[in-house]
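Saturday, quiet lab. Running sequence design on the structure tokens for the scaffold JK sent over.
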């Protein structure tokens, strides 16, 4: 029998970790299973929210997102997708009102399942580029070291604040907050 278990979180799961940060801070249980996702409903301030973590392969996450959006008739501009981005510096955030997939297969699949619509906001969470000639797939699956973990925790708090601002004060104020925020740089 196991006395304890350790879960190793890798770079490709930062979107889920951001959802977990929001859920914990706002008291939203993301534990029911609907539409091939872990799902929860609650509110931030007086704004009702749904949080979902697709349980498909990342490259098929649009199956879950598309089903949720269709079933609940959610306007695309009210769908915020949180995801890892190799092209952003580590632990940085970028909030955009719409856009393409940028080579991210999960985003490509979400766009496909939203009938080609790119008209939904997204919060990109930087995981940086792989060092040297490391394969990007291996890099995305690599766990964080202690310093990176601390930087990410700071980033998740900024992301939480950005989501609160987005819901309570609007996209423009949230984008200004996120896109002008500095990431935490720790010195050894």
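Result came back. Writing it out in full:
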């Amino acid at each position: 029998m196991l006395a304890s278990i350790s879960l190793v979180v890798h770079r490709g799961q930062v979107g889920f970790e951001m959802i977990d940060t929001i859920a914990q801070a706002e008291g939203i249980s993301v534990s029911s299973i609907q539409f091939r996702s872990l799902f929860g409903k609650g509110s931030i301030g007086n704004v009702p929210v749904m949080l979902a973590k697709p349980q498909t392969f990342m490259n098929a996450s649009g199956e879950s997102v598309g089903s949720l959006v269709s079933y609940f008739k959610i306007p695309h501009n009210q769908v915020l997708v949180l995801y890892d981005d190799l092209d952003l510096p580590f632990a940085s955030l970028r909030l955009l009102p719409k856009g393409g997939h940028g080579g991210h297969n999960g985003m490509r699949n979400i766009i496909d399942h939203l009938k080609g619509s790119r008209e939904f906001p997204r919060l990109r969470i930087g995981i940086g580029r792989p060092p040297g000639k490391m394969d990007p797939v291996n890099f995305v699956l690599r766990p964080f070291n202690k310093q990176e973990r601390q930087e990410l925790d700071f980033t998740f708090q900024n992301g939480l604040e950005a989501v609160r601002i987005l819901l309570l004060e609007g996209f423009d104020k949230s984008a200004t907050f996120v896109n002008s925020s500095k990431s935490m740089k720790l010195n050894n």
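Notes for JK: Residues 94 and 179 are 6 Å apart (CA to CA). The chain is about 40% helix and 20% strand. Ask whether to fix the surface positions before the next round.
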